[in-house]
């Protein structure tokens, strides 16, 4: 959606809209409180109040939806969560592979030790590593 600076700017705009909304409501109430109030001016301020309030509600809903996505860990544009999760899974796979390699090394060493014990009991007439007979 947007970077951190854009998000802060959106929040600043929402704050300004809230101030405008409160000013329109105050103006409408002041107009209605006058002895000779102008119906048209009160309606204009009330309409502006309602439009601004609707915009604030919409913008705040967008912000709440964004924060809900972030807090639940769902990946979203600009989020580091997905990358962090991929890295965590890669580390987990790496550790799993290391454990398998260590297990294979242990089996290899065990097999070689067993083969060495068996070959120690073979008489001298066996083949050498070069393929010649002794």
UniProtKB/TrEMBL annotation:
Main location: nucleus
Record-level GO cellular component terms: mediator complex
Compartments where located: Nucleus
Single GO MF annotation: transcription coregulator activity
Keywords annotated in UniProt: Activator, Nucleus, Transcription, Transcription regulation
BP-aspect Gene Ontology terms: regulation of transcription by RNA polymerase II
Classification via InterPro entries: Mediator_Med11
PANTHER family: MEDIATOR OF RNA POLYMERASE II TRANSCRIPTION SUBUNIT 11
Protein's job: Component of the Mediator complex, a coactivator involved in the regulated transcription of nearly all RNA polymerase II-dependent genes. Mediator functions as a bridge to convey information from gene-specific regulatory proteins to the basal RNA polymerase II transcription machinery. Mediator is recruited to promoters by direct interactions with regulatory proteins and serves as a scaffold for the assembly of a functional pre-initiation complex with RNA polymerase II and the general transcription factors.
Oligomeric form and interacting partners: Component of the Mediator complex.
Recorded family membership: Belongs to the Mediator complex subunit 11 family.
Protein name as catalogued: Mediator of RNA polymerase II transcription subunit 11
Organism (species): Parnassius mnemosyne
Recorded name of the encoding gene: MED11
